[in-house]
Amino acid sequence: MDLSRNGHPNTKPAPKAVVGRVSLYLRQLESLQRQGLTKTSSHQLGEPFGIKNAQVRKDLAFFGQFGRPGIGYHINDLILVLRRILGVDKDWPLILVGLGNLGRALLRYRGFQSRRFHIVAIFDTDPKKIGQTYQGVTVEPLDALRKGIAAHKTSLALLCVPADAAQRVADLMIAVGIRGILNFAPVPLAVPPQVSVIAVDLSIQLENLAYKVQGSLDGVSWAG
Amino acid sequence: MDLSRNGHPNTKPAPKAVVGRVSLYLRQLESLQRQGLTKTSSHQLGEPFGIKNAQVRKDLAFFGQFGRPGIGYHINDLILVLRRILGVDKDWPLILVGLGNLGRALLRYRGFQSRRFHIVAIFDTDPKKIGQTYQGVTVEPLDALRKGIAAHKTSLALLCVPADAAQRVADLMIAVGIRGILNFAPVPLAVPPQVSVIAVDLSIQLENLAYKVQGSLDGVSWAG
């Protein structure tokens, strides 16, 4: 494999769409590894997601030269490299701010743990929740944010507070060292350039789905 | 406004990215309406999301000609038109399949209710959950899916079952009339062309965030 020291021949970060697809290829590689396979192809990596093999090759080429024509990719090697590139070859401590229903669901979301994301601290403003323990983590008041982030050396946060508190809490988190926010509040956040935000607005995704579906409903029979 | 009968001058559906941004403009319009304003501009519609006014104009032009140079957009009118275009000018009954932690959080997610999405039926395979009532809805066995979908005339489903059950349950839902699936299971679904799927894989979004953040962590001090 032709890799620079950090496994990343490009100096600028890959576009979001490329990173998203590489996450999918990694999932497929892990699935193939569990099935006991040792080699795979661009076709096999993209096929479950409807991604063409030329696109798979182009996406992977962004990070280095893997695999060989006629031979394909070594599954174990490529998993290690992609995990390193994506930053999931290590544990990522997370903080969770806002322990409503969604916060509680995220706390138990197995998808995070299996990708080595661990919620190490929980913050809320509700006196009834502060001091309670959920999934082995004790809820702390928002005032303790700075101390908690320093103690756990976390830079990623799940923001699950109500919409009208989101910007204020985000400002607070950024002031004490948070660099990445997965925002579940249905409002856009204004953040400085060194901070990354990914918004998860479930109602927008449902709206997109409704838009796609509404055109195809004429003549549908539910009596089936 | 220059609109065809159904408010949709294009015959083919708008690209996903356009629909997603139009959902954001609608949110901003509703926010301006709540502030008592009656007129707005492309700049004001895109500004909270960092979208340039030329892009706003181009996105809206996909659906018709709204607003006038020098005058701008009538907020109330544009809200009504965009709601109709997006299909959120009516109630959308949803079914929820799989009542784990995430399912329970979605059941209480206010963002759905405020966009007129209502969970009208819940299905699970766990005998301990079947017959129980959550948020006023009684959990039914998966066998009752066909009858439940016919009774509620639903075409949208939230799929919150474990990964290894997702494809089987999706097949079942599609066979009885579901046309749109918001998939929370961390696996891709194979579906026929008349069915739409939007995947919500929270761990992929967190991976994308970790990727963005890992490059910017050198020299960060958590001691603040």
Automatic annotation (TrEMBL), chains A, B:
Cross-referenced InterPro entries: CoA-bd, NAD(P)-bd_dom_sf, Rex_actinobacterial-type, Rex_DNA-bd_C_dom, Tscrpt_rep_Rex, WH-like_DNA-bd_sf, WH_DNA-bd_sf
Alphabetized UniProt keyword annotations: Cytoplasm, DNA-binding, NAD, Repressor, Transcription, Transcription regulation
Keyword field contains Repressor: yes
Domain CoA-binding, first and last residues per copy: 87-188
Residue range(s) of DNA binding per entry: 24-63
HAMAP family the record matches: Rex
Assembly and binders: Homodimer.
Name of the protein this chain belongs to: Redox-sensing transcriptional repressor Rex
Organism phylogeny: Bacteria, Pseudomonadati, Planctomycetota, Planctomycetia, Isosphaerales
Originating gene: rex
